[in-house]
Task: inverse folding
């Protein structure tokens, strides 16, 4: 059996992001907004489903789909970071900076992911990273996903209704939503 | 120290001029555009100083010229093909340069934009993140260049990944150095040393003139 350490780590990280607010507020109804939870879970689902036919391997479009979902998922983590830094630390960002942050985070996470995969492949002698072309495709999707999701999350936070923001109050979405234009 | 660094910078610029002159004479003009462009870039800090009164740290000036020098003169001498790891050396140079410029910009933004506050630890994190992101972007540009212009900038996957690995190292080193620097110097002092206030005034003047005020 092959243990997919990297994806397991991602899964555990995603799960902790999901339960963190519940634990910190001791309220089981204060989970992440469902759409964000979905964003975190989709790439994992796509990745494990890619092994439905181990002999053939997944088709290219499936890998692209996984890469797109994955970059959106990185962007989601980046966005959660902006919100939680605002909540738990002295860090203050404004709108343009937070959009830039989500974009940068997505690119950096994609790069870091591939570096880990590469080094892991060298260490175990069983590379899973593919060729240069595959890695570059992954980065192209990270670039696209990062730019798009940076703006999407900005719109998202502005479009959210006040009542919903109050329900999800744990994230200080309230405070973040009134980020001043610097 | 400062004097010595600027003398060294001048010498390295001279080296690039030599490449620009030697190229056409020997019929090897591959590196001519790079040499001319690098010479221009290496003069940008002086231009900023003259026209905007903005003073970049001497070490940063030196680093900029050194990175360009290694790229151009090393490239002209065929080091990219002959010296193992030359490619990675210049990558570390350019990545640390990007990280350092990112550091300067972020400190200035932190000082001048009221709605942004970036503590030291976050600054270090941001620099690492920024450097890896730019590294990925750089590789994408090389890839695009290879695909569109038929060049051969990316040799292999190993090469690309080791580039990224070195970029990451450079990011960590600059982030640590920057955070360490800010331990003894306040961001305010750093910004004052660069004379950003005067540059801001100059920029405002340029903007006003452009808008016809």
Result:
């Amino acid at each position: 059996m092959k243990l997919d350490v990297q994806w397991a780590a991602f899964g555990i990280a995603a799960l902790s992001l999901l339960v963190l607010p519940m634990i910190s507020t001791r309220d089981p109804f204060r989970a992440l907004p469902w759409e964000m939870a979905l964003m975190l879970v989709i790439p994992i689902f796509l990745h494990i489903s890619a092994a439905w036919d181990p002999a053939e391997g997944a088709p290219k479009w499936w890998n692209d789909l996984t890469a797109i979902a994955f970059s959106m998922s990185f962007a989601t983590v980046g966005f959660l970071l902006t919100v939680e830094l605002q909540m738990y630390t002295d860090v203050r960002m404004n709108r343009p900076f937070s959009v830039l942050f989500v974009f940068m985070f997505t690119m950096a996470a994609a790069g870091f992911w591939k570096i880990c995969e590469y080094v892991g492949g060298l260490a175990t002698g069983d590379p899973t990273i593919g060729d240069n072309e595959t890695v570059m495709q992954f980065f192209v999707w990270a670039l696209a996903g990062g730019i798009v999701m940076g703006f999407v999350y900005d719109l998202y936070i502005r479009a959210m209704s006040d009542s919903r923001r109050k329900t999800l109050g744990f994230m200080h979405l309230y405070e973040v939503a009134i980020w001043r234009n610097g | 120290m400062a004097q010595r660094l600027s003398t060294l910078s001048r010498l390295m610029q001279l080296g690039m001029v030599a490449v620009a002159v030697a190229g056409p004479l020997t019929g090897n003009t591959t590196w001519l555009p790079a040499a001319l462009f690098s010479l221009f870039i290496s003069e940008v800090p002086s231009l900023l100083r003259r026209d905007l009164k903005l003073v970049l740290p001497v070490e940063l000036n030196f680093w900029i010229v050194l990175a360009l020098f290694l790229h151009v003169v090393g490239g002209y001498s065929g080091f990219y093909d002959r010296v193992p790891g030359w490619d990675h050396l210049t990558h570390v140079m350019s990545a640390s340069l990007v990280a350092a410029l990112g550091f300067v910009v972020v400190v200035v933004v932190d000082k001048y934009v009221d709605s942004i506050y970036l503590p030291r630890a976050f600054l270090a994190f941001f620099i690492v993140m920024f450097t890896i992101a730019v590294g990925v972007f750089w590789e994408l540009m090389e890839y695009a260049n290879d695909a569109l212009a038929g060049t051969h900038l990316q040799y292999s996957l190993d090469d690309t990944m080791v580039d990224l690995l070195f970029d990451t190292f450079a990011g960590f080193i600059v982030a640590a150095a920057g955070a360490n620097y800010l331990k003894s110097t306040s961001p305010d002092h750093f910004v004052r040393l660069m004379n950003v206030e005067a540059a801001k005034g100059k920029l405002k003047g340029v903007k006003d003139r452009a808008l016809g005020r």
About this structure: Chain B touches chain A through 30 residues (CB under 8 Å). Residues 87-213 of chain B form one domain.
